Amino acid sequence: MQETSILPSKEQIRCELLTLGAKRSENRAMTELVLMFERPLVYYLRQLAGSEADAWDLLQETWLQVCRSIRTVRDGRAFPAFVYRTARSAALMYLRKHKADAALLSAVDPPMENPCEPPTIRAEQAEAALCALNCLALAHREVLTLFFLQDLSLDDIARVLDVPVGTIKSHLHYAKQALRETLEKENVR
């Protein structure tokens, strides 16, 4: 199976070089990595944490952890999955610590009945879809955000969440179903 990347090839090469520089404690390289990933990470963390302020706090924690463990990244191509996995760990630790929603954390693979076709969302429904996304369980929000809003492949999401690709497919299926049900309750078509 050919490994795909989170970033386009030119950006992937730049990321690899910056990762090597950051591993050698080059401040400029780490600054460039932060600038490259800051916006997508804040958006991802916002979906997990539930608030903008918490997302920024988690972003800081993420970069502290990345700085502490950047030397463990063996291959620069692995950096994007590494940084998302670090952000996810920071968010889950935060949620556990603050007991924001214990039920969401335990929702690893929630049972759903009567699987439906995945929802089709038109451009004019974007705002309603984002509102509905915020109403979903953490596991659903996370996989939908990574797949649709961060444009990660199934393989990349599997690396970020540290689960098999088949599990990601299952989570994505149930997350789409939950989003559809939420949109239907809000009468969004």
Protein architecture, described:
By secondary structure, the protein is an all-alpha fold. The chain has 2 domains: 1-101, Orthogonal Bundle (Rna Polymerase Sigma Factor, Chain: A); 109-189, Arc Repressor Mutant, subunit A (Orthogonal Bundle), CATH 1.10.10. The chain has 9 helices and no strands. The chain starts with 8 loop residues before the first helix and ends with a helix.
List keywords for this structure.
mainly alpha, 0% strand, 189 residues, Arc Repressor Mutant, subunit A
- The total count of helices amounts to 9
Second-tier CATH architecture of the largest domain = Orthogonal Bundle
The CATH topology name of the largest domain reads: Rna Polymerase Sigma Factor, Chain: A
* Mean of pLDDT: 81
Share in β-strands: under 5%
Structural class: mainly alpha
The CATH homologous superfamily name of the largest domain equals RNA polymerase sigma factor, region 2, helix turn helix motif
Radius of gyration: 17 Å
Q: What fraction, in percent, of the residue positions are helical?
A: 55-70%
Major β-sheet annotation:
none
What is the general shape?
globular
How many domains is the backbone divided into? Answer: 2
Order of helices and strands: HHHHHHHHH
What's this model, at a glance?
With 189 residues, the chain is mostly helical. Helix content is 69%, strand content 0%.
